[in-house]
Every structure is written in C-alpha cells, then in structure tokens.
Write a structure and sequence with these properties.
Largest interface: A-B, 23 and 25 residues
Largest sheet of chain B: 7 strands, mixed
Largest sheet of chain A: 6 strands, mixed
Strand content of chain A: over 45%
Structural class of chain B: mainly beta
Order of helices and strands of chain A: EEEEEEEEEEE
Helix content of chain A: under 10%
Structural class of chain A: mainly beta
Number of helices of chain B: 0
Oligomer: heterodimer
Amino acid sequence: RKEVEQDPGPFNVPEGATVAFNCTYSNSASQSFFWYRQDCRKEPKLLMSVYSSGNEDGRFTAQLNRASQYISLLIRDSKLSDSATYLCVVNRDSWGKLQFGAGTQVVVTP
Amino acid sequence: NAGVTQTPKFQVLKTGQSMTLQCAQDMNHNSMYWYRQDPGMGLRLIYYSASEGTTDKGEVPNGYNVSRLNKREFSLRLESAAPSQTSVYFCASSLPGQGVRDTQYFGPGTRLTVL
C-alpha cells in the first residue's frame, strides 16, 4: 500500500463549479499535512497547510480527518487558472521529510 | 531572491555516462533535498541534507551520490547513468527552525533522459 494515495483524476470541472477530492495516508503518526500545486512540467508549490480544525484560504478549503486518515481539498468557484495537479503531502518523520502522493489532476473548462 | 535554482534544465546522457546536477538556494535554508518524479509515482526522496556538512539517504538512493558543498549548494551526481534514471529531478530547500511544518521550496527541475 502506498503511504499517500490519491485519485489521479482527471476531475473535469466547469468554470464556476465546486470540486472536492481526498487523499488517504497510512502513517498514523504523521503530524503535518499539506496540499501542493503542480502545473504541467513545473515545480510543485505550496498551496496550503492543513490544520486539525480545517482551514480556508480564499476559495480553497482543506480538512483533516485523523480518525479515518484522510485529508481533503475543496475548490469553490473554480477558475481556469485552477487547472493543475494537486499533490497531497504528509510528513514522514520529525526531521521534516515529506511523503508525496502522485497527485490529482483538475481540469477546469470554460 | 532567485529562490532555488537548478542546472541544467535538460540533459541527455548515454548509458554509463556520468553527470552532476547542481542546486543552489539563496534563502538561508538549512535543509536541502533531492527528489525524482516519475509518471504516476509522485516525488520520491533520493537524498537530503538536514544541515551543512550532513547528508542522508532517502527512499531511492541507489545509483546516486550527493555533496553539500556549503549552506547554499547541494549537488547530485550520477556516476554511471542507467535508463532507469530517466526522470525529472527536483531540488528543494526548507525553512530553518520550523520543525515539522517546514515548507519546502522547489527548483524548476532538471529533465534527464538516459539512452
């Protein structure tokens, strides 16, 4: 079993719609959770950290469910510029090493 | 600030050739990392350096060596390239002293093809 699993998609979303997707992680000792965004053939960039109580950053909402070991990302009012691959990232140990999921592709269409 | 820079951007090697991928950061970060990204597999850690003067193996270190030349620079060397090392290589660095919530900042990547 992969340490971090994601639905690869693609999730095809009409502009203005809402899209949500999850990722599951296997290490119950993980303490830090992130969503990174990766555009085609570019480097990953931090989108947002995920906190235990859930958190929002503009149109993006992240949730953490420790009991079921999954995190989620919801994008409201999707923009064409939201088209990207979203990487679920979980810390592996206290030294800050990270485990990356393979990514969920989101395609926003006009 | 340039952030994290990597050279070269593209490289084609023949099996058995060697090369060094260069990475530098100007953010005064202590920790630096080398990853490879293959289709459908996510980023996998090759080597990391928690601080200047230290290096440790990650998930997939075989066939690679690293050097933390100074606080700014962390290089990755392929001694005898193999087709299985065809991949996109990313260097990253992270904020000092933030513990497990360190954000990693990535360079633009090196696209390596081994024939």
